[in-house]
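Support request, please re-run this one:
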Amino acid sequence: MVTVLFVTQIVLTLILTVLVLLQKSSSIGLGAYSGSNESVFGAKGPAGFLVKATFTVGIIFVLNTIFLGYLYNKTHNQSVVDTIETHGGTVPSAPALPVAPAAPQPPAEK
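Re-run finished. Output below.
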């Protein structure tokens, strides 16, 4: 299931990128290379259709991302720390600190 959602995410990314690039901006963009789209999309041109299509694909993209994150966390809920093997069944402890020698005793008075 996760693999299907990953593939869907890649396809949605490509479609969303193309839809954004086809829209008219302050510069001519990639819409100049598509020919006369105004006759295909109606009198208003492709602007209304592309905006609606971009919005729809964007919503599907966000929902797919949320669902993919939910499924991925559900199936991969184990931490990397859980996979560390301990030697001898116990957790290694810190080495013991060296003990300082005792202070010398002053000479006894006679």
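The first helix runs from residue 2 to 22. The chain has three helices and no strands.
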